[in-house]
Every structure is written in structure tokens, then in C-alpha cells.
Write a structure and sequence with these properties.
Length: about 775
């Protein structure tokens, strides 16, 4: 063992650059794998812990208006699968009446309700994940606003309407297992019972949340059907526990998924590089290996000798990667910790990365062992003669007319006859280009206004929500009258949302959310088919169509007000709202059955959208008016922030990989071509010429790799992104590319990195002379 370690130490000294480059590869692989798994472990622990401590409902139904408490109690009593129930009274305050640091929350998308602490389940927790308690004159602020607006403990929130004003001191930041994420459009503030009673006498509108816990094995779909069939209060959105889980997974898990995906790709690249390095090293040491076999060393001993180096590198990479993942993992999981805490199973964030690092080590070691043993199968005579190396040497013919462009001719000739040697570096460059563009394109897509189409609606400038109110029709009429006479508006369309019943895949009847309106005004891009053109057609969201097994042309039967309505499925579209389960059809809903009106508005070119939004807010004080760009930014803001971090990390890692691979490759290739370099110099090529030839070879490979990487990022990247969003209801995403950045700045950065690295890495050619070859 001491002899083996001594030989390994000598090998490290002799091949410092290659060893360092390979070590960095393995360290990056281990670091990313451990970081991604630490983020995943933290997320799992955090969400599990929040659910255990806050006990969110498995089904909740929002409702505005009056209700019959006795009827609700009878409903609960007559359905045995209900384990517990709760009625949460919320006082909805208009955002313009909530003031922080002199600014109202009118520009915020969220609906804000003021509540007291619940009893039984659905607790609001403080930042220590304890049941939050506030005294009179105090308020608990959702962690969403603490993050977005910078609200801190000790700050003052002012409620103001007409002559009434009340100041509340922020005593705690609260976590809400039901409404934490930005994708949930409502947020709850915690106040004392006395303060809630006082505030309700001056402002706000009561809204109720009917919440349920179910016994094991019970279906939320069955509860929803029974609830609606019993005509229980339902003027509001319904949310299931599975939908909350889906929103949390999308909000917090996207970063972990991308990091783990990058680490897996990086491991594959590391294995490619390992394979190339081992084969190149052993090819150069054929004679030495033959001598060791000749003096009686067994294949097992020789394998140990060569494998020892990689065992040491893997151990070093594993330790550094695991330790490095602690700060990096905590940095990338800071959002889920902020919103959910560390959870009750913290061992996950320590054990998951350890398992990942161990698996990485085993994969690398098995790969090394397989490659080394394959190279030792040749006989002593073959190894001593170097026959295989001779067979693999390529040849190219110089033009008989002479060398008009000598450096280009030599560079392309050597590329032609030795292209296999450049395959690994080509694949690494492809991966690096892909790695830079994929997170960048994902982020650009989410931030683009057209991403609204993946929420099941056409692209527009402004969105007006009129929802869950006893004055719903009056508000709708006032909004339409205002928009009709507005010369700055080019077009608008109103859509009403209601529910019908349909049978799911297992034959159970459940309620289906349907949007009714002129779909041609703000059209969608349909996966297949088109928008409904008459009252006999219905378009389904992708997730609905998948679960129901429906395709364009199939019939679809629904029940509304006891009447069966038969439609032809005319189109399938993507929608990540409401759990991805929606439909579009021309159904004439009764006014009492309309849950919400949504109006989409386009303004003339040159009209400032923000200014127009403020104007509409003053005219429509009871409606929520939001620029669509702001709607996307607030709904997906946390996700895009995380994507920005991943994008920056991907760019840095990719450029570092390009530099390391170029250095490592140049070291190997110049060492193997030292005789050819010396001969070139003897026949008149200068050091500068030879370095230019190396540069041409590498830059040509890099240029081709950038093209392939860009194509893969746009094609395979769309498949990856679509797969990630498929659980939310979007299966096919068209990545939106920023051309200047993607097709100019990024390739330029990659080519510049390679160019500088070649200049530095080819200085070694000065050391090769023909006299050294003659001496050998």
C-alpha cells in the first residue's frame, strides 16, 4: 500500500494540470449532486414539518355571503368520512385600505383577509413554527409580504377608510400552510378577536372558508361532489390538499430539480473525461504496463495501482462536495426555509447529500475499474510494441499544389484524421453550451408576458377580476360601461366562470370549472384543435383531457342545473391554474351560479399600462385591476428569483468547465503529439504557427458544439421544461429565447474563454525540439 501511495504521489506531481482539472470536475459533480439533494431534503423536511404543525385542511371551500350554520353542521354529521371540520371567518379588506410606509397595497395582486387564530387545525404559525399569538393592537403579517415588501417585526400597518384609521404593530411574521406560496392568490393577516370585531364595523367584507379533514382513504373528489350536491355555500374557489402540494412542489422544488439535473449531466461529463484520460494515460504507458506484466505483476495489482489515483480523487471530491453543499444548499433552499421553516425531519438535509456523494463515488469507481481492466486485456507483446496505438494513428494528405493557407490546412487535416480524440471535448462543449442556455431560456419564458397563455388565457395588457361578491352583477355592469366608452382601449372581453358536473376516469361525478366567453378575442395556442366556435363545442385543459381520456372530436357530457349537456371536444389547451383542471365552453350560467367575472383588456400603443391601470382602479374601486405583466411577476416572482440564481450558477460552472477541459485536453494532446510538433518546427513551422493550429482545432470544435448545444437547448430543453410543468397542467412549452444574449453574447463568452485558455495552454510547444526526438 505504501508503494502504491508513493507511485500515486509521483503521478500527481508529473501530471499536475490534468489531475487538477479532473479533481475540479469531480468536485463540481459532487458539489452539485450534494447541493441539489440537500435542497430536496430541506424542502421535504420543511413541507412535511409545516404540514404536521399547522395541520392544513385536505379540502377547503371559500364563500362570500350568508350561510346556514345548522345546515353545515348537519352535512358534517351525515358524512362519516369527514374527520373534522372548521369554519374560518375572514374579513376581506380592500388593498387600497391597507397602508405600509405611506403606500397602499393596491398594486399587490393578493386578496387579503384578516382572521383570528383557528382552533382544532389550520393553525397560523410564527417563525419558530409555533402557533402564533397576537395581542390587541398587534398584527401577524404573512411571510409573503415580509419577503416581497420587507415588512419586519416592529413595523406599523395602518388600516384606513373614510374617517376611520387604525394602526397595528407587527408582532410576528406568520407562516400559512394553506396560503403560503405566491401561486395562492389569497393571504391571511392575524389579528386579535377584539381588533377584528372593531375593524369589521368600519370596513371589509366577510368571507368564509369551510375546511375539512378527511379520514384515511377518503376522496376529496367525493367530498366536493357531496358538498355541491347538498347546495352548501360555495361562492368562492375550492382548494384540495393535492393542489396545495402541487403548488408547493412547483414553487420550491423547481430549483432542486434543475440543480440535480445539472449534476447528473456533469457526472456523465466527468465519466467521459475520466474515460478519455485513463485511455490516453494508459496508451502512453503501454510499454510500462507490458514491463509490469512481464516481471510477474498480476492484472489485479496493476488495476489497484492505476485505480488508487482515482480513489483518492473521488474521496477528496466527495468530502469537499459534501462540505461545500452545506452553504450552497442552504443558500438555494433559503426560500423554502423562510416560508416553511426547517421542518421536523432535519436529518433529510444531511443524509440525502451523503447518499448522493456515496453513489457518485461508486459510479466513478466502477467506471474507472471497467475502463482500466478493458485496457489490460492485451498481451505483453502487444503492449511492448504499442501495436494498437500504431493502428489508431490517422493520416492525411497535403495538397500537391502546396500550402496556400498552411495553418488552416494542417489544423483541418489533423482534425480529420484524429477526430475521435476530439469527441470528448466536443461533447463537453455541447453540454456547457446547453447548460448556459437552458436555465436562461426557462427564466426568459416565465418572465415573458406570453407565459400567461400557459395559465389558460390569451395574452393581454390588463386583467380585471370581479369575484365572490353579492354585488357581482352590478360591478360587472359598471366595469363594462366604463370600458365601452374608453377611447384608449382597443379591445376587451369578459369571461364568466362557473361549475358543471362531469364524470372522472373512475366514473365518479365531480365538479368541473368552466370559463364561458368569446375565446376568439384573446386566443390561446392550442396543443390540438381550436377554441369553441359554437354552443356545441368544449375545449379541455391538457390535464383534464389526459385524466378523462378525451381527444379532439370525442363527445363530452356534463350536467348543469340537472340538465345533461353534450359537447364535442374541439381543442386541448394548457393551463397551470386551478390544478390544471379547467374547460372552456359557451354555457349560459345563471347569475347566481357565476363564481367570478374576469375581463381582459388591451390598450392602444403608446398608452402607459401602469397609468391606465391606476385610472381603472379609481373608476372600479370594488374590482381588482392588475397589469398582466405584474400578475405574472407577483404570481411567479419567487420562482423567477430562484431561476436567476440557477442561471448565474450555470453560466459560471459552464465557463469553468470549458476552461478546465481545454487546459486538460491541450496538456494531453500536446504531450501525445510532442514528436509531431518537433517535426513541424524542424520543417519550418514557428511556435506561433503551431499554437495557431491548436487554436483553430479547438475553436472549430467549440463553434460546432455551440450550434449543437443551442439546438438541443431549444428542442430537448422544451421537452425537459414541459415535463417539469406537466404535473401543473402544461405539457408542451415553447421556450422563448432572448436572441442577443443567447445567440451572440453567450457564444462570444464561450469562444473568448477557449481563446484565452488556448493562448495560455499552448505555451508548452516551445519546449519541444527535433534534437530531443533524435536523442530518444
Amino acid at each position: 500500500m505504501i508503494l502504491l501511495l508513493h507511485l500515486v504521489r509521483k503521478d500527481f506531481k508529473r501530471n499536475r494540470v490534468i489531475t487538477t482539472a479532473l479533481a475540479v470536475f469531480l468536485i463540481l459533480s459532487a458539489l452539485l449532486m450534494a447541493t441539489g439533494l440537500r435542497v430536496a431534503g430541506t424542502m421535504n423536511s420543511s413541507l412535511k414539518g409545516l404540514d404536521e404543525l399547522a395541520v392544513p385542511p385536505e379540502y377547503l371551500q371559500m364563500h362570500k355571503g350568508t350561510y346556514d350554520e345548522e345546515a353545515f353542521d348537519n352535512f358534517v354529521a351525515t358524512h362519516e368520512y369527514i374527520e373534522d371540520s372548521l369554519i374560518v371567518k375572514m374579513l376581506d379588506i380592500n388593498n387600497k385600505n391597507i397602508i405600509y410606509q405611506g403606500e397602499t397595497l393596491e398594486k399587490c395582486l393578493m386578496d387579503n383577509g384578516f382572521v383570528v387564530q383557528n382552533e382544532g387545525f389550520d393553525y397560523l404559525l410564527n417563525m419558530n413554527n409555533e402557533v402564533a399569538v397576537v395581542a390587541d393592537g398587534e398584527i401577524g403579517v404573512p411571510v409573503y409580504y415580509a419577503e416581497e415588501l420587507g415588512i419586519q417585526v416592529g413595523d406599523v400597518i395602518t388600516l384606513h377608510k373614510d374617517d376611520y384609521s387604525k394602526e397595528l404593530r407587527v408582532s410576528t411574521i406568520i407562516r400559512d400552510a394553506s396560503m403560503n406560496v405566491a401561486l395562492a392568490s389569497s393571504k391571511r393577516f392575524l389579528v386579535s378577536p377584539a381588533d377584528l370585531d372593531e375593524i369589521s364595523r368600519h370596513m371589509g367584507e366577510n368571507e368564509y372558508s369551510f375546511e375539512f379533514l378527511l379520514k384515511d382513504g377518503s376522496s376529496t373528489a367525493a367530498l366536493q361532489k357531496d358538498y355541491m350536491d347538498a347546495n352548501m355555500p360555495a361562492k368562492g374557489v375550492a382548494i384540495t390538499g393535492s393542489l396545495l402540494t402541487m403548488m408547493n412542489a412547483f414553487s420550491y422544488g423547481l430549483v432542486a430539480f434543475i440543480i440535480i439535473a445539472i449534476s447528473i449531466l456533469l457526472i456523465l461529463v466527468s465519466l467521459l473525461c475520466l474515460s478519455y484520460i485513463i485511455q490516453a494515460t494508459m496508451a502512453d504507458e503501454n510499454v510500462t504496463i507490458g514491463e509490469m506484466k512481464a516481471i510477474g505483476l498480476t492484472g489485479k495489482t496493476i488495476v489497484k495501482l492505476y485505480q488508487m489515483k482515482y480513489i483518492i480523487l473521488v474521496l477528496i471530491a466527495g468530502v469537499i462536495g459534501y462540505l461545500g453543499a452545506i452553504p450552497f444548499g442552504d443558500f438555494f433552499s433559503s426560500a423554502v426555509v423562510m416560508y416553511c421553516g426547517y421542518g421536523t425531519v432535519e436529518w433529510m438535509r444531511w443524509v440525502f447529500p451523503l447518499i448522493g456523494v456515496i453513489l457518485l463515488g461508486l459510479i466513478v469507481m466502477l467506471g474507472c475499474r471497467r475502463i482500466i481492466r478493458k485496457n489490460l486485456k492485451r498481451s505483453v507483446v502487444e503492449l511492448m510494441r504499442g501495436e494498437e496505438q500504431i493502428k489508431k494513428e490517422g493520416h492525411y494528405t497535403l495538397p500537391s499544389a502546396g500550402l496556400k493557407y498552411p495553418n488552416l490546412t494542417m489544423a483541418f487535416g489533423e482534425l480529420k484524421c484524429r477526430w475521435k480524440e476530439y469527441l470528448v471535448v466536443f461533447l463537453v462543449f455541447v453540454f456547457s453550451s446547453f447548460l448556459i442556455l437552458l436555465p436562461m431560456n426557462m427564466k426568459n419564458t416565465i418572465e415573458n408576458p406570453s407565459f400567461i397563455t400557459y395559465m389558460g388565457i390569451g395574452e393581454s395588457d390588463i386583467r380585471v377580476d370581479i369575484q365572490y361578491s353579492d354585488k357581482l352583477t352590478a360591478q360587472k355592469d359598471a366595469a363594462l360601461a366604463s370600458l365601452e366608452n374608453d377611447s384608449e382601449i382597443t379591445k376587451y372581453a369578459i369571461y364568466e366562470n362557473g361549475y358543471v358536473q362531469s364524470q372522472n376516469a373512475v366514473g365518479e361525478w365531480e365538479y368541473l370549472r368552466v370559463e364561458s366567453g368569446d375565446e376568439a378575442v384573446f386566443p390561446l395556442e392550442y396543443l390540438s384543435g381550436s377554441a369553441p366556435s359554437d354552443s356545441k363545442e368544449m375545449a379541455l385543459s391538457y390535464m383534464n383531457a389526459t385524466e378523462l381520456g378525451k381527444e379532439v372530436g370525442d363527445s363530452m357530457t356534463v350536467v348543469y342545473q340537472g340538465e345533461e349537456l353534450t359537447f364535442t371536444v374541439c381543442g386541448i389547451y394548457q393551463d397551470i391554474t386551478y390544478g390544471g383542471k379547467t374547460a372552456k365552453a359557451a354555457i349560459d350560467f345563471a347569475e347566481n351560479d357565476v363564481e367570478v367575472y374576469i375581463i381582459y383588456v388591451d390598450v392602444h400603443d403608446g398608452v402607459a399600462i401602469e397609468k391606465k391601470t391606476d385610472g381603472l382602479r379609481s373608476i372600479l374601486p370594488d374590482s381588482k385591476v392588475t397589469p398582466v405583466s405584474e400578475f405574472i411577476a407577483q404570481t411567479l416572482g419567487g420562482i423567477t428569483d430562484s431561476m436567476s440564481l440557477v442561471e448565474a450558477a450555470a453560466i459560471i460552472i459552464s465557463l469553468l468547465l470549458i476552461m478546465l477541459v481545454t487546459v486538460m485536453f491541450l496538456q494531453l494532446i500536446t504531450a501525445r503529439e510532442h514528436s509531431a510538433i518537433a517535426i513541424k518546427k524542424a520543417i519550418g513551422f514557428s511556435n506561433r504557427d503551431i499554437r495557431i493550429q491548436f487554436g483553430i482545432r479547438i475553436l472549430v470544435i467549440q463553434f460546432l458544439a455551440i450550434i449543437v448545444g443551442t439546438v438541443l437547448a431549444n428542442s430537448l430543453g422544451e421537452m425537459i421544461f414541459g415535463w417539469m410543468l406537466s404535473a401543473m397542467g402544461a405539457s408542451k412549452i415553447m421556450l422563448l429565447v432572448e436572441p442577443v444574449t443567447a445567440y451572440l453574447l453567450c457564444p462570444a463568452a464561450q469562444l473568448l474563454t477557449v481563446f484565452i485558455t488556448v493562448i495560455v495552454g499552448t505555451k508548452v510547444v516551445r519546449n519541444y525540439h527535433i534534437r530531443d526526438q533524435i536523442r530518444e
